[in-house]
Write a structure and sequence with these properties.
With 700 residues, the protein is an alpha/beta fold. 45% of the residues lie in helices and 11% in strands. Strand 16 (555-559), helix 25 (561-571) and strand 17 (579-582) form a beta-alpha-beta unit.
């Protein structure tokens, strides 16, 4: 049996792939890990052990239908985030003669001669995509990954398999979700079903409209002799090659681009001929393997390897990103990029019978794409700092969500003013693992005091900002404005905050982020919803709806009671990259039922001043009797009165979520920054301190 060890929960966000491997390596060549839904597995990050496993399919099988008891017995549901890696009938889930039969059908399409014949087509595609990149560049940062790194591989694979333009989005969508380890059970199950439908419809289309492509050839092989290719194998093979098949090249292009943009000395040596493009290609694959924990292998018998006892039926994942940086193979400099290092051995294309079928095509596309990119745009540079790049949201692959760039040198040198981001910077990427999130106690000089901050500066005219709407799960319309450029961040306001209140801060953030600034329900341009059915989950659904509009992994910055909403959202798996919280108000006393009743009555009777006064003075207590007069004379007082409906919801939050939610903090796996101002309320400082005592912290 497997030795009892404490499993390490793999981060579904893919926040810090290499930092995660360093922690796993402390356990030895093989470490026990936990996958979504508590599924246990082994992570292999030692080069020699990984190579031995990949070369021995008799002991380490790729077939879950024969060798994974939990899958065979139905314990793994169709809602498991990694279900497609087990359910699809492909050459990647077969061994022996079945694997050889499926691979043989496609071998001729990926020979060196065939790939060489495609070179003019690949070069023309690269030129076309870079033309479009240039045409779409308006001076604002543009996503190099979305416009080039993703487009080139998917275009090549779709053309190779004859996928019509109008079917590509639907076919490729399933592949993107296939590698997203953050998806819910509902999304996973729906993706499995819809992806199968999309591929089945493609096969039917190609039957009726045959062409000079691989799909037509596979159909001919299936019709000629059913023993060569079954229906499920046909669908599974297309899933594999059109889905995961392009991901290796996507990230190989992306990592090389980032390295060359950030290492101008390396780029200069390559252009001078001192370092070859092939050296850069191989070192990129070694130090930044495009895949991380690639599913799956299964022990076919009890075995001891790498000093670890693995039981028959145990799940195994090769940590390719870790294997390439194995210090036993590459020494103390294993983590560093050195294109001139003598030993660049890696396993990024696999090893043994499952060696990547498309490796020649991937290399040819890379050797055309990367040199042409830097020849066409010699001054291309990242629009953000390198350490601000966000992980792809997966522990299966090793990639970035987006790569914002300026293809040409920006109009100015763009030195960033420290004053522009003081007190509002997102934390550096530090992964979570199911323990309480990292917190950082930040005391900025100019964040303002108290729950509302400096109101004279924080209220703004938003009439010129674009107004957009999204429907929450219960049908309530939520209003938001989108502006800026860079990685996305969703701003969640606090008590008596609407979009206008947060626009000055959001404007600062927009210099480095694409900001989604929304009105929580009951304020601004958002609807109130039904107060009788309100729970904090309603507001979690509102936040989730805005995040879904973003369409890619996003930061979340939340103030005051908005922070309490964001904590519940993060604890319950609402996808986000990082979470910033400013003074979440876990008070010393809860809202009373009388205060709630009075608020409802004041709201119903339109007694706005009394509702705001009750909320500010008695419910949350950030003004006292002496300061209430000044508070009523404040320029924003009239705006507060338009938000009286929201005070009822915030009062309910204060009643139902009084204490620091330690259990929910334990469930947060995204890096979390907790901030407080020097002049903030003492009860808020105390709440931050209670959270910090139960967290792994970094002070600054």
């Amino acid at each position: 049996m497997s030795e009892a060890v404490c499993p390490y929960t793999l981060d579904p966000q893919g926040t810090d792939t290499h930092g995660e491997t360093k922690q796993l390596r402390e356990q030895g060549p093989i470490a026990r890990v936990e996958l979504p839904d508590g599924v246990l597995a082994w992570s292999v990050h030692d080069y020699e052990v990984a190579r031995e496993m990949m070369g021995n399919q008799e002991l380490f099988s790729k077939n879950p239908r024969r060798n994974w008891p939990d899958y065979i017995n139905g314990k793994i549901s169709n809602g498991w985030p990694l279900i497609t890696w087990a359910a699809m009938d492909t050459m990647a889930t077969q061994d022996g003669t079945d694997h050889a039969r499926l691979r043989k059908l496609l071998l001729k399409a990926f020979t060196q001669r065939r790939v060489d014949s495609m070179k003019p087509y690949i070069e023309a595609t690269v030129t076309e995509l870079l033309d479009k990149l240039e045409a779409n560049y308006s001076g604002e940062p543009i996503d190099l990954k979305g416009h080039f790194h993703m487009e080139l591989p998917t275009r090549l694979m779709c053309d190779l398999f004859g996928v019509p333009e109008d079917r590509r989005e639907k076919v490729l969508e399933g592949g993107h979700k296939n590698i997203d380890t953050r998806i819910s059970a509902e999304v996973a199950e729906n993706n499995l079903e819809q992806w199968q439908i999309a591929i089945s419809e493609l096969v039917q289309y190609k039957r009726e409209n045959p062409g000079d492509d691989l799909t037509t050839g596979m159909i001919a092989a299936m019709d000629e002799d059913g023993s060569r290719l079954s229906d499920s194998e046909m669908i599974g093979t297309l899933h594999l090659l059109l889905g995961a098949g392009s991901e290796t090249l996507v990230n190989a292009l992306a990592h090389a681009s980032v390295e060359l943009m950030c290492n101008r000395e390396l780029l200069a040596k390559v252009k001078a001929g001192e370092i070859s493009w092939e050296d850069v290609f191989e070192e990129t694959l070694r130090v930044e393997s495009p895949v991380a924990h690639l599913p799956f292998r299964f022990a076919t018998d009890d075995v001891e390897i790498g000093g670890v006892k693995i039981a028959k039926g145990d799940v195994i994942l090769i940590d390719f990103a870790g294997v390439g940086r194995d210090p036993a193979m590459h020494g103390e400099t294993a983590d560093g990029f050195d294109a001139l290092r003598e030993e660049k051995t890696h396993l990024s294309f696999g090893h043994g019978v499952h060696f990547c079928l498309g490796s020649r095509l991937a290399k040819s596309a890379w050797m055309s794409g990367i040199p042409t990119l830097f020849e066409r745009f010699p001054d291309i540079e990242l629009a953000i700092e390198r350490d601000e790049l966000v992980g792809q949201g997966s522990f299966v692959v090793n990639g970035h969500a987006t790569i914002p760039v300026h293809p040409y040198a920006p109009p100015s040198a763009r030195p960033r003013s420290a004053a522009n981001t003081k007190g509002h910077t997102m934390p550096e990427a530090v992964r979570g693992d199911g323990t309480p999130p990292d917190t950082e106690d930040v005391s900025p000089d100019e964040t303002g005091g108290g729950i509302l901050g400096d109101l004279d500066d924080d209220y703004a005219d938003i009439s010129d900002l674009p107004l957009e709407q999204v429907r929450s799960a219960d049908g309530t319309s939520i209003a938001y404005s989108k502006f800026g450029s860079g990685p996305p961040v969703v701003v969640v306001g606090g008590g008596l905050n609407d979009r206008a209140m947060f626009t000055p801060l959001a404007t600062i953030m927009s210099e480095r982020f694409t900001v989604y600034n929304y009105d929580r329900r009951g304020r601004g341009d958002s609807e109130w919803g039904d107060p009788d059915t309100w729970t904090i989950q309603r507001e979690v659904e509102d936040l989730a709806a805005v995040l879904e509009v973003v369409g890619e992994p996003s930061h979340v910055f939340a103030n005051c009671t908005g922070g309490m909403v964001a904590i519940v959202a993060a604890a319950n798996g609402v996808p986000m990259v990082r979470l910033g919280l400013y003074e979440p108000p876990y008070w010393s006393t809860a809202t009373t039922e009388k205060q709630l009743a009075d608020l409802r009555r004041f709201i119903a009777e339109g007694r706005a001043e009394e509702a705001v006064t009750l909320f500010a003075k008695d419910v949350v207590g950030f003004v006292d009797d002496e300061s209430i007069v000044h508070f009523r004379s404040h320029p924003a007082w009239s705006a507060f009165q338009t938000m009286i409906k929201s005070t009822y919801y915030d009062a309910l939050i204060n009643r139902d979520h009084l204490e620091v939610p330690l259990e929910e903090l334990h469930r947060i796996t995204v890096p979390t920054l907790v901030m407080r101002g020097d002049d903030g309320q003492k009860v808020i400082h105390d709440a931050c301190a209670r959270a910090r005592r139960r967290s792994r912290t970094r002070n600054s």
